Amino acid sequence: MDNERGTVRSTQAGVRRQAVPAAAAPRGDLPYTDPAGPKARLSRSRRPLGEPSGPGSSSPWILMYHSVAVEKEDPYQLTVSPERFAEQVAWLHRRGRRGVSVRELMRARAAGRDGKLVGLSFDDGYADFARHAVPILQAYGFTATAYVVADLLGRDNGWDAEGPRKQLLTVQEVTELAAAGWEIGSHGLGHQALPGLPADVLAVQTRESRRLLEDVVGGPVTGFCYPYGAVDLPATQAVRDAGYDYACAIAHSPLTGRFALPRCYVGDRDGAWRLRAKRGRQRLRDTVTELRRSPLVARRGARP
Question: What is the DSSP string of 66-129?
Answer without folding.
Answer: -EES--S--TT--EE-HHHHHHHHHHHHHTT-EEE-HHHHHHHHHTT--TTEEEEEE-TTBTHI
